[in-house]
Amino acid sequence: FVFHDLYTAGGNHWGFKGFTSSSRLSIVTNGIEGLTVDANSNVGIGTTSPNRQLQVKKTTGTASIAITSSNTGIAQLELGGTSDNDIAGVTYNGNTSMLSLKTNNTGQLYVTNGGNLLIGTTTDSGQKLQVANTSVGGDVDGLLLENFTDATNSSVTITMRASGNTARNVYLKAINTSGSGEPQDLAFGTNAAYSASTEKMRLTSGGKLLVNQTSDSGDILQVTGNNNVFAARLNGGTTGGQSYGLRVRAGTNSVDTSLLLENTGGTDLFRVAGDGATTLSGSLTGTTATFTGD
Predict the structure, then answer these.
(1) Which of 23, 61, 111, 213 has the fewest CB atoms lying closer than 10 Å?
(2) How confident is the model at residue 4 (pLDDT cuts 50, 70, 90)?
(3) How do strand 170-176 and strand 155-160 relate by DSSP bridges?
(4) Which residues pair with 74 in a beta bridge?
């Protein structure tokens, strides 16, 4: 069926048009095929050869589909199978101004009008990403970042930046230190002023803590100092009561070592054994020292 505009030069027309050669039916407006149904029951809007059950096409500008509700209503697109045709879907709630994604008939992911992403909760606590679940007496495993290679030194990184300079950031990095057994180290990196990030601390797969160094020398706590500063300082409390500095415990035998001081060349300077025996290499100067015992 074709309807002609008798008042327009050129005879623009509107109506239904069937094509026996391509087995399709089209709705024509102003002489243009706007909607087409092909032999496979595919519907095309803006195209005469749809390759999906519904295809919307626009050769210039933006192609869009609008689902509109009242200001406080719900606009949604439902997805599912023949036995449960709304088991999944995308919903906009005008009352809460949230966009949500549901699966298994349950809302799983929400985007607030402020751009915050909520997973497993509808309560916005203000963070850009919030992941929540319930495990009474158990653990909620909320996030997994994975590198699918087993190669040595492969890693995965969480990067954080508190400025607009993309070269300045801090990071938390998991490092696979061996292709055999895949032991994992955890590294922490920071950046100094006007500098790129470098690793500052590492917790090894064996539970050793390395500060300002990446090479493991074997001790549980390993700290490398900088020039003209001490590698560590322990301050006792000063607000009142007794103030304590450092307590070191080891075995009670003479072969055990409670305290060992050595220089960078590895020479022992001062040693306290587990039985209290003390060895000093060098001489005491300055303040008088008093030793009690044998």
Answers:
(1) 61
(2) low
(3) antiparallel
(4) 93
And the tokens for 202? 């590492």
Query: What SS3 state is found at 35?
Result: strand
Handedness of CA 126, 131, 136, 137 (dihedral sign): negative
Name every residue whose Cβ is closer than 8 Å to that of residue 273 and which is 6 or more positions away in sequence.
253, 254, 255, 256, 257, 258, 279
State residue 268's pLDDT score: 92
Query: Which range has the worst mean pLDDT, 7-16, 26-35, 52-61, 90-99?
Result: 7-16
Taking the C-alpha atoms of residue 40 and residue 74, their distance in angstroms, rounded to an integer, is 33
Record the tokens describing residue 30, joined without a space.
Answer: 């102003």
Cβ burial, residue 202 (10 Å; 0-12/13-18/19+): buried
Strands in 170-176's sheet, in edge-to-edge order, are 155-160, 170-176, 184-190, 198-203, 209-211, 221-223
Would you say 67 and 83 are in contact if contact means Cβ atoms under 8 Å apart? Answer: no
Query: In whole angstroms, what is the distance from residue 263 CA to residue 200 CA?
Result: 23
Q: What is the tens place of the pLDDT at every residue in 155-179?
A: 999 999 998 888 899 999 999 999 8
Backbone CA torsion sign across 162, 168, 170, 173: positive
Closest CA to 103 of 128, 78, 133, 69: 78
Taking the model in full, what pTM does it have? 0.75
Name residue 198's amino acid. Answer: T
How far is C-alpha 36 from the chain's CA centre? 45
Strand-pairing partners, residue 280, are 270
- How far is it, in rounded angstroms, from Cα 294 to Cα 275? 11
Distance CA 201, CA 213 (A): 7
- pLDDT tens for 71-90 read 999 999 999 998 998 899 99
Residues linked to residue 160 through DSSP beta bridges, in sequence order: 170
Distances (CA, A) of 274 to 246, 255, 262, 291: 16, 7, 17, 16
